[in-house]
Write a structure and sequence with these properties.
The protein has 110 residues and is mainly alpha-helical. It is built from 3 helices and no strands. The N and C termini lie far apart (42 Å). One of its GO terms (biological process) is bacterial-type flagellum-dependent cell motility.
Amino acid sequence: MDSKGIDQMLNIMRSVSTQAAGRSADAGGTSASSGGTVDFAQVLQSSIAQVNQTQQKAEDMAANFAGGDSDGNLQDVMIALQKANISFQEMIQVRNKLVSAYQDVMNIQV
């Protein structure tokens, strides 16, 4: 799976974290002050779409293999299913980190 969207989202989160800590963003991160603006919702949405596409491709391969399609082999089907599973687990971990960060922000005493 191409994890470009997830990597981009993580870079944004790192950039925001360093800015919140009072430091300048690292050279590899994307920063709004450097002229490039990135819509967090867009990055998140595209990442979820990539995971969905990976899962659908794996399910199609499995269905074709179960239906007797001679083009696919078991190894390719199993690899595609594992890639889909790993990408989904990665998305869950990112979601958990976002929920945790949201809860931390909401618990800040003003």
